[in-house]
Structure formats: C-alpha cells, structure tokens
Amino acid sequence: MNISLLKKHPLVSAAGILVLVVMLAWVIAYEPVTRNLIASDGLCNYCHLPWEFNPDERLTATRPHPAASKEQEQQAQARCVECHLPEGWWNTTYAYTHFLSITDLFGHFRDRDGERAGDWIPARAATAYRVRDRLFEYDSNTCRGCHIEDEIKPKRARGVNAHKLAKDEDKTCIECHTSLVHRYVEPRKDAFKKADVSDAPKG
Amino acid sequence: MKKTAIAMAVSLLTAAPVFAMEPADVDWSKVPANELVLFYPGQSTYQWLRSKDHKRAFMQTQDGQACVACHLNEEKVLGDTLVKEGRLEPTPVEGKNGSIDLNFQVAYDDENAYFRFQWKTLNNYAGTAHPYWRYDGKEWKVFGHPKLDEVVQNGEQPGIYEDRMSIIIDDGKVPMFKEQGCWLTCHNGERDNPDLPETADVKDNPLFKHLKKKDVRKYIPSSRTDEDASWDMGKTPEEIAQLKADGVFLDLMQWRGHRSNPVGMADDFNVMEYRLGDAGKNPFAKNWDKEAKQPKYMYDPAKFGNKSVKFEDIRKMPTTLIREQNAMPFDPNAGWQEGDLIPEYVVSREDAKGSAADNSQAKGEWKDGMWTVVWARKLNLANPDDKALSAGKSYNFGFATHDDNITTRGHFVSFPVTVGFGADATIKATKLN
C-alpha cells in the first residue's frame, strides 16, 4: 500500500479502515447475533405458533427440552434455533433465506411442486416430516451440537442397550427421538430408510 | 383326610408310568445350568408393542427389531414395573412378584431331548390345585378361578389355578419369532387382554366359525391378513393349511401341576391361527356332563378314601381326579353335601393319544418352595403338528411359568433364546453318552 497516498487522504483512509473493521466485526458477529438476537423464539413463533396449536390442550403445544426435572432445573431451555438451525457461519445464512421462504433452515430450496404432489397430508405433519428428513440426512447434527454421543450415559438398561445398538448400526438420534418436543406426529412408515444401492436402476 | 392322602399317594406310586429312559436319570450335575429371568408382561401385546405407546421403539418393533436390542438384562426392571397397576396392568394381583429366576438345563442323546427346570414359587405350597365343581346344596358350580378374574379380585371366589411350565418352539419358519418370541402370539382380543370382543362377534367371525371357537387365544401374525394382525382378520382355512404345511407354526407344550404332572406328562399344542391341541388327545378333559349338568366322574371312595374333597383339603394333598386310578362314574345319589368339591377336569394317561400324547415323560416335584421339573421330548418326531427337534440343529425357544394361581397373561415369560442340539446357539444342549 502506498503510505503517502494515505497521508494525502486521511479521511478516505479512516473510512476504509472503518469499513474493514465493520466488515470484520460483521463476519465475527454474524452467527452469534443471528442465532441469539435475530432468530429468536419470538420471531420463529411469529409464523410457526399457529402450526403448533393443539386443539385439545391450549398453550401446551410444545414440551420443554431438556425435559424439566429436578436435576435439570438449572439448565437453560433449548431455543428453536438450537434444534432447527445447524451451527456454522454459512448455515446461519439459511435463517435469512428461510425468513424469505426460499429455503428451509438446512438450506434446501422449497420444492413447491413436490410439496403439492401426492396425497394431501396435514401441514403440521408435513412440517414434521421435512424436519425429520433433514435431521436424518444430516446425522441429527443439531442434536449433536449439544449432546456428545460418547458422553451420553442413560440411566436405564434399555437406554444403554439402545444407544449401543444405535452406534453399532450407525443410527442417528432422530430415528428414535421423534416427537420429543412438539405435538405428536406419527412417523411415516418409510421414514429413516437409508438408500440401498441395490435399489438403484440398472444400466 | 390323612387316609385319603395316603391312599392317593399309594395309588400314584403303584401306577407310576414306566419310561424307556427317565429324564430324572440324567446326571444333571454334569449339564450346565442356564439362569434365565422370566418376567411379568402385563398387557404388552403385539398391538401395543407396535403402537406409539411403545415410545421410541414401536417403529423398530414393526421392523422386526429384537426385544433384547433394548431390553437385554432388563427383565427384572420390566417385571417389577409391569406387575403394578398401570397402563399395562389394569387388574394387578396383590402381592405378586415381578419376575422369577428360572434354572434351565438341556441335554440330548440319540432318542430324546431332556429338559430340567427349577424355579421358586411365591407360595409355600405346590400349585397342584385347579378349579373344582362345588355342590351348593342344589347344583354344581365352578369353584375357584385364576387371580386375574374379576370374581377373585372382588373376593367372590378364591384364587385357584395350577402351576405350569411352558415351552414354545420355533424352527426358524415363523417370521420374527427369533427376535420377538412369545410376543408374536399375544394379542388384543385374547382373554385378559384389551379389546376383548363379545362372544357373539367371535362366533360370527368366519375363521372362528370354521374353528368352532368362541374366544380368542394365541395366534401368530402370519395367520392374519392385516398389518396389525387383528384377531378378526384371519386368513382362509386353505391359506392357513398351506402355511402350516410349510411349517409356519409354533409348538407349545405345557407341563401342568394338576392336569398333567400326576400322570407324568405334559400336554402338546401348536399355535398358528389359534392355540390348538395336537392331533389325538391330551391327558386332560373337562369333567362335565352337559346334558345332566353334573360331573362325569367323582372320586372312587375305595381308592381315594372319599367321594369328594373339601376346600380346606386342597393344598394339603393331591386332588387330581385320575380316571384309571381314583375315579368312578358320578353318582348323583351319593349323598352330596354343600361344599363338596370334585375336580373340574379329569386326567388320564391311558386316554392320551396320538401327537397330543408325545410328552409322556414329564415329572415335577415341589420341595422347599421350589419346583423341579424334568422332561423328555422325543427327537425327530414326524407329526405334522410338531416341531421335530433334531441333532445338529438349533431352535428358537420361549419359556413361561404360571405361578400363584393364575392363567393367560398372568405368567412370567422369557425373551426368546436359541437352543442348539449339537449346533451353535445361545444355550447349547449337552450331548449325553
């Protein structure tokens, strides 16, 4: 850089530095600001609360996660983004594309034709199916943001056995842990089926 | 009554069956013991296990995942939970334990497979009593019921039912039995389970009409047309016959404290579209004359010491009515008194015939609070309603015991386990020389 040029135009120089600092700050703050301030539960609920409405039990559309128990009283309640928006700088962008209804929170474009095809399913179920499919596809990456598999120590034998089996068979969290938080939606029969190369068309 | 007991014991001893090779003669000290935990299942039916109430496992269960994939070594916990009043036990039995430890040994030679079972009973008496006909001064009515029955739970009737040791066997031809065992046979609609249908509905159902049955008992999902394996969705008799011919059925054998042990036998049933007796005749039959509305047989006073028993006698002495040993045709003019009891069933080793009489070497002894049952089963049986046990093969076994005056689902059950006769399996039978 030509130092003499900077000396000749100090205001331009200061502005440039300021822009650089702002840009750097933006790059650094982009993810935490988005996750903690912008993509708040309140903002999510601006659109999604109607879908969560439970006609039988008003205002109990969701259950706390982690589950409220004596041991967990001190733990903070998980927020929407912690389960639904994968971590990472680039993934954060999907919050904004989702606000604009272009993609889901995993960056997949809306497939409106696909969504309209086939049998009609309730919107609430369709939403659950989409999220479960994404979690399955991405190895439940948002679950793993908080839960480290090797550190999970279930209290009951069934939990120990099930987690061992899951590791042995390379299963992912969502295959068992559906409907943990939101209103119950029956899993689809063909959910969580991994692709089998033998099913691929020949030739 | 002491005289009666002695007479009964003598008659049993003198008429004891003679076996080609007694299972009791096996040197069981040289046969490894396997400790199995059998637990109370409550109403955990096939349908419940596939419902969302089976929380995080119902889809896996539908896909055929083994029970032990999650519940390995959890039998005691499961039993202790399920035996209490809750979503799977609407009619808990007071004081009932949640599980038992079963000691199981198995051996074989060129002729037979030999089984030995040991388990502690909840009560300090042998479960050899079974419901009776009781004379109320005018007519004979059933006296004593299993403890899940409402009449016992509300105190109208005493809990009386025989102890049992059951074996269920699959040779690999019943889909998912290896993984889910006896739970394939336990369904909504069966006795003491949810959604019990009206008798008229059962009788009107085409399958049950064909079977001439009026209640729903064990069946396997392969016999039904719908995914939920509903009791009323049976396949046609032709389809069922073909499946049976292809070997899609289970062998179910029960040693019974009242209705088979006194004649040294166990019964022989099979399960496909229903729990059906094997061809021929089992060692027990209903002691009832429908037309005369009275028992067919009574005790022979000359052999038994009395023509009937009283309630206070029944757990202090053997009371099984054995046609060829202590019975005679019922005499309505024998001076019956209110409270006289005659067994509801008559037992006979001589009358047992055909494939139903295959288990002719099964004997149990109750001592110091524990049953020890030894049992021989012929290898290579050729009956179409049996699962032939053969050297060099392994089988999927399920075990159950009925303890403390109970029947139907009130038993303790095991998860399925493989047993090999000279073949690789979880439990390997010892070859006898």
Structural key phrases:
heterodimer; A: 203 residues; mainly alpha; 2 domains; B: 433 residues; alpha+beta; Immunoglobulin-like; eight-stranded mixed sheet; six-stranded mixed sheet; 16% helix
Task: Report a brief summary of the structure.
Chain A is mainly α. Helix content of chain A is about 50%, strand content about 0%. Chain A has nine helices and no strands.
Describe what this molecule looks like in 3D.
The complex is a heterodimer of chains A (203) and B (433). Chain A folds into two domains: 1-38; 47-193, no CATH class. Chain A has nine helices and no strands. Chain A is mostly helical. Chain A has helices spanning 3-8, 10-38, 41-52, 80-84, 89-99, 112-116, 123-137, 141-146, 157-168. Chain B has 433 residues and is of the alpha+beta class. Chain B folds into two domains: 33-126 and 163-283 and 349-431, Immunoglobulin-like (Sandwich); 128-161 and 285-346, no CATH class. In chain B, 16% of the residues lie in helices and 25% in strands. Chain B has twelve helices and 22 strands. Chain B has helices at residues 2-14, 46-49, 58-62, 68-71, 75-82, 150-153, 177-180, 199-204, 206-211, 237-245, 301-304, 323-326; strands spanning 34-39, 99-108, 112-120, 132-135, 140-143, 164-170, 250-256, 269-271, 275-277, 284-286, 297-299, 321-322, 327-329, 341-343, 345-347, 361-367, 370-378, 393-402, 412-413, 417-421, 427-428, 430-431. In chain B, strands 6, 7, 8, 9, 18, 19, 20 and 21 form an eight-stranded mixed β-sheet that branches. In chain B, strands 1, 2, 3, 16, 17 and 22 form a six-stranded mixed β-sheet that branches. The longest helix of chain B has 13 residues, at 2-14. Chain B is globular, with a radius of gyration of 21 Å. At the A-B interface, helix 9 of A face helix 4 of B.
